[in-house]
Amino acid sequence: MPTTTTTDPIPIRQATPSDIPSLTTIIPCAYNPDAFLNKIFPPESVAIRDWWTQVYSKAIGLPSYRILVAVSSTANEVIGVLTLHLHRPPEFGEQGGLCTLVPLTADHHEALKDALVEQARDRATLMRQEPNFQVDLLGVDRAFQGRGVGRRLVQRACEVADQEGAAVFLQTTKAREWYLGLGMGFVPDKTYEDIAGGVVVRPAASG
Ligand SMILES: CC(C)(COP(=O)(O)OP(=O)(O)OC[C@H]1O[C@@H](n2cnc3c(N)ncnc32)[C@H](O)[C@@H]1OP(=O)(O)O)[C@@H](O)C(=O)NCCC(=O)NCCS
Predict the structure, then answer these.
(1) Is residue 1 part of a domain?
(2) Which of 84, 128, 188, 198 is most buried by its number of CB atoms within 10 A?
(3) Total domains in the fold of the chain
(4) Which residue, among 81, 171, 67, has the nearest Cα to 117 in the 3D structure?
(5) Cα(174) to centroid of ligand 1, in Å?
(6) Global confidence as pTM
(7) What angle do CA 160, 166, 171 make, to 5 degrees?
(8) What pLDDT is recorded for position 91?
(9) What residue stretches are annotated with the N-acetyltransferase domain (predicted)?
(10) Terminal alpha carbon distance of the chain
(11) Distances (CA, A) of 131 to 76, 104, 108, 167
């Protein structure tokens, strides 16, 4: 009987150090033109690109981080990334996110610090002591958007969370409805000024 093998059309894997050069440009590739993201991570800044190199180099070596990437089949470059950071007791309240692994540069805007403080406060309030993966970053290169790459990254993140028995917590600037459309869970009861942004929580799988 012939055997059939199914290959994933958009394979997702964990990042390796050789992915770091293309990881450092994924934010401007995914978000440009986005006024807020361009303000907090000025795309032309060499210092911020170096900072991303340090951030990813550190995160890839840490067991509490999962850097999931989709890679182009032709150029072997990162076309999409989703970063996960596991918070578990007893360090639960002390860990920051991806952007706190390396001190911010003078080129980062103050608004980033405010956003990180707000995110930490929301996570502490909502997740309490429940183990959770924080999604710090999700972006798909504009040239590859609309082809299911983002969906596959989110699906893989949910699989990882289920394997660890952890919830997923994320704060989005503009894609709240998109996450909910992927069955990501619920929006906590909070009034958001920005109707496209806010917090999304996916509870840990039961059983
Ligand atoms: C949001 C994002 C990750 C989606 O990735 P993607 O690979 O383009 O998404 P998919 O191909 O899996 O899904 C595409 C669908 O999502 C919809 N979609 C994309 N962005 C959306 C948004 N912000 N809100 C609602 N729906 C959205 C598309 O219209 C499309 O709908 P369709 O299937 O009915 O045509 C990507 O567009 C991106 O990187 N955007 C900029 C960065 C960003 O917003 N990141 C989100 C975290 S803040």
Answers:
(1) no
(2) 84
(3) 1
(4) 171
(5) 9
(6) 0.91
(7) 90
(8) 67
(9) 10-205
(10) 38
(11) 34, 27, 30, 6
Residue 83 lies in a domain: yes
Amino acid at 67: I
Ligand 1, atom 19, residue with closest C-alpha: 178
Testing ligand 1's pocket by substitution, the residue of 178, 179, 195, 199 carrying the most ligand atoms inside 8 A of its CB is: 178
Per-residue pLDDT of 116-127, as tens digits, reads 888 888 888 888
Q: Which domain holds residue 102?
A: 12-202
SS3 86: strand
CATH number of the domain that 115 lies in?
3.40.630.30
Beta-bridged to residue 182, according to DSSP, are none
Ligand 1 atom at shortest distance from the alpha carbon of 146: 11
Say if 168 falls within a structural domain.
yes
Q: Give the tens place of pLDDT for each residue, 39-90.
A: 899 989 999 999 999 999 999 999 999 999 999 988 889 999 999 999 987 7
The residue behind tokens 């996916």 is 202
Token pair listed for 104? 């911010």
149 and 80 Cβ atoms separated by less than 8 Å: yes
Residue 2 lies in a domain: no
